[in-house]
Amino acid sequence: MGIVEKAPKKIVWRAIEYYKQNKVLEVYENGKDCYSAIVAGSGKTKYDVFIDVKHPKKCTCTCPFAKENDVICKHMVATFFSVKPDYIADFEEDEWRYSEDKNYRWQKDKERLKAFARKMSKEELVDELAECWLELEAHRRRDI
Question: How far apart are CA 138 and CA 5, in angstroms?
Fold first, then answer.
């Protein structure tokens, strides 16, 4: 699994923005599939980044997020995109396909549930709706 696959999607999208905004200021090849970079942060801070394309666990960044959480950060992914820019289009295409599939599945499930609901009595529907609302309320409270 590579750097992009190990990073949360939110991080990858931010890294694409960083790449497109030219925040990867300098990149140096340190050997086969290893790179060092200087990446501008969201403020005036610059971060030192090291990526090993073959071994993502060896990647490092001096930003607080990466140091405190020992994870792949947007600076690492932006550095990766600066040396492998074709991966951006691949990622965006995969995300678009997933979104289309998700919408299709949503519509199919909705139609299936509507057909099921049409067979229920009014009392059964009201009871089922009340149960759903209670579960939704409980779920929202857990997320707070």
Answer: 32
pLDDT at 143: 63
Domain locations in the chain as residue ranges:
3-84, 91-143
Indicate whether 29 pLDDT > 70.
Answer: yes
| Nearest CA-CA partner of 39 in 54, 49, 30, 50 | 49
Indicate the helix (H) or strand (E) that contains 132: helix 122-143
Q: What's the pTM?
A: 0.68
Using an 8 Å Cβ cutoff, are 126 and 133 in contact? Answer: no
Return d(Cα 102, Cα 38) in angstroms, integer: 37
Contact present, 12 and 71 (Cβ < 8 Å): no
Distance, in Å, from the CA atom of 71 to the CA atom of 50, rounded to the nearest integer, reads 13
Spatial CA neighbour of 46 closest among 54, 56, 55, 36: 36
Tell me the pLDDT tens digit for each residue of 108-140. Answer: 889 899 999 999 999 999 999 999 999 999 888
